[in-house]
Every structure is written in C-alpha cells, then in structure tokens.
Amino acid sequence: ARGGVDIELLPDLGQDAMEKGDIFKDIAEFDAVCHVVRAFGDDSIYHINGSVDFKRDIDNINSEFILHDLLFIEKRLERIETNLKKANAGEELKEKELLLKLKTQLDKELPLRLIDLTAQETKIIASYPFITAKKLIIVLNVSENELGDVENLKKLEQEYQVLDIYILQICAKVESEISELDTKQEKEEFLTALGIKEPAIDALTRTCIKAVDLISFFTVGSDEVRQWLIKANSSAPEAAGVIHSDLQKGFIRAEVMKYTDFLALGHEDKLRQEGKVSLKGKDYIVEDGDIINIKFNV
Q1: Could you give the CA distance from residue 14 to residue 158 in angstroms, rounded to a whole number?
Q2: Phi/psi zone of residue 111: left (φ > 0), alpha (ψ -120 to 50 degrees), beta?
Q3: Which residues contact 103 (CB under 8 A, 6 or more apart)?
Q4: Which residues contact 162 (CB under 8 A, 6 or more apart)?
Q5: DSSP H or E segment with residue 168
Q6: pLDDT in tens, 242-258
Q7: Phi and psi at residue 196, in whole multiples of 5°?
Q8: Best CA proximity match to 291, nearest among 226, 217, 234, 208
Q9: I want to staple 284 with a disulfide (CB 3.0 to 4.6 A). Which of 16, 125, 269, 280 is the partner?
C-alpha cells in the first residue's frame, strides 16, 4: 500500500477568507490532519504572533477548523430550506436533522470526531468537507533540551485525549542531523547519546497509521519482504485483495506467522518446526504485524 504526506502552509485565516468556503479545501480531502506546532524558543527565528505559545497556536487552529465546519453547515442548511419547499424532500429533512445535531456539537466548540454516528448518518455526510471529523495529530517541534521530557508529554497527552487528539514531540533540528548520518551505526550512536530510542519519523509514522485505523501485515518472498496496509478488523481474504484481486477471489486459506515469533526464531523453517505457523480460513481477522502466505486458486 502506498501513502503520502502533503505539507500545507496555513493561508490567511481572516473572516472574509473563511466565508469563501474553500480555505481548507485541500486539507478536507485528507484522512487525517497532522499539525506541526512550534514549541521551541529562539529569538533569532520569527514567530508570526510575536511569541512562542504552542497551546495558543493549537487552540487557534482548532477554532478555525470548527468555524470552517460551522460555515459549511450554515450554507448547506440554507440550501436544504429551499429544497424543503419542493415535493419529495424526505431525504433533505433527514439531512437537516443531522446537520443541526452536528451544529450543536460545533457550537459547544467540540470537534465532530467526538460524535458517535450511525452508519446511515456517516453515509449522508461522507462527501462533506468536515475537518473536525478527521483525526488530528499534533506534533510539537521542541528544543533538543526538551526532547526527553517524558512527564510533560504525558500531561499533554492526558489534556488533549478528551478531544481525541494524538500528540507527540520531535526536534526537527535533531531529525535533520540524523538524516545526514551515513550509517545505521552512526545513527544508533547519535540516538543513544541523546537518550532517544528511535527517530521521531518512525513514531510519527506509527501514530498516523493508528490514527486512520490502519494496521500492517507482511508478505515474505524469496527476494523481498513487503509491508501492506489495511483497515483494522479486515479479514484474511480482504488482506489478500490488497495484494491482488485474484488472491481474494480465489482465496483458500492463509498461513500466518506472528512477527514477534519470527524475530525470536529468525527463520520460517524454525517457526514451522516449533508449530508457530497456523492455518487460517476466510473468517480470520488479520492482526497487526502478521506475516501471511496466501493460498489461492483461480
């Protein structure tokens, strides 16, 4: 599976720009939003608000997202009111009730992702550009000295958890230095010296995958190991379909190995000897990190 990361600079957030309705049109097309916020102090680097206050900046952008969704709902309700004057407006009436429900949530300055919607309600608004319905990941760009402040990060995670916001911290300066190192050993030594377990990009990748409700599984060939991304709670045939549609159509069974077992024993033959390879049918729900060999017949 292939993914992508698009970087979007914040546009003018004035009221006039907001009312045009397309200020965040590119963001609205994505599955999740990752907001990188400055949290390091450096007088030599300009900040648009004149000071560094990451909580203020987070609150500001969240407010703009809420305003964006409110303006869309108001415009949509105006159109629905016009359509209700016509015959056969039953669907519009259902949509109006749902939009009013969503508006009540936004009026409380709460994001739409906190609302539990039925499958039918989700279908009604599926094509609408609601930003606050998307998962939000906040990445704090901190100084090198603050990078190891685990306690502060835990406090922030608890604070923003009620808004269903993922939060993590990086030091972009450190990440840049890591990227310039040539060998794996050099990178590991550099991370160890700073007391860091892994490059932040690895943690960010996992967080983004989790946020959009994806898991990964692996296939192992004679000359390559490949990772695939699928929706959580996908069945084995659905996982096979990600590789190729023929594998899903002709699915017979799947040989499944656990990633942790593979790391411990080091080779597929040893897993077979230890009875660590299991056969799974069409009802098997793939787990994160599974190593799968699909048996099929077309």
Answers
A1: 31
A2: beta
A3: 70, 73, 74, 77
A4: none
A5: strand 165-170
A6: 999 999 999 999 999 99
A7: -110, 135
A8: 217
A9: 280
> 195: which 2 tokens?
């007391």
CATH topology of domain 1-212: DNA polymerase; domain 1 (1.10.150)
Interatomic CA distance for residues 34 and 280, integer angstroms:
37
What is the reported pTM? 0.78
The single-letter code of the amino acid at 74 is E
Q: Please, are residues 279 and 290 in contact by the beta-carbon 8 Å criterion?
A: no
**Which tokens sit at 294?**
């699909």
Enclosing H/E stretch for 165: strand 165-170
Per-residue pLDDT at 58 exceeds 80 = yes
Pick the CATH number of 214-296 from 3.40.50.300, 3.90.230.10, 1.10.600.10, 3.10.20.30: 3.10.20.30
Each residue's pLDDT tens digit, 183-225: 888 988 888 888 788 888 888 988 999 999 999 999 988 778 8
Residue ranges matching CATH 3.10.20.30 in the chain:
214-296
The token pair that represents 56 in the structure block: 């203020």
Phi first, then psi, for residue 102 (nearest 5°) are -70, -40
Pairing of strands 214-220, 225-231: antiparallel
Let me know if 257 is exposed, middle or buried by CB neighbors in 10 A (0-12, 13-18, 19+). Answer: buried
The pair of structure tokens assigned to 88 is 């056969």
Domain with CATH 1.10.150.300 in the chain: 1-212
100-159 pLDDT, tens digit each:
999 999 999 999 999 999 999 999 898 899 999 999 999 999 988 887 777 888 888 898
- Label residue 31 by pLDDT band (50, 70, 90): confident
Q: State the Cα–Cα distance between residues 72 and 212, nearest whole angstrom.
A: 23
Amino acid at 110: L
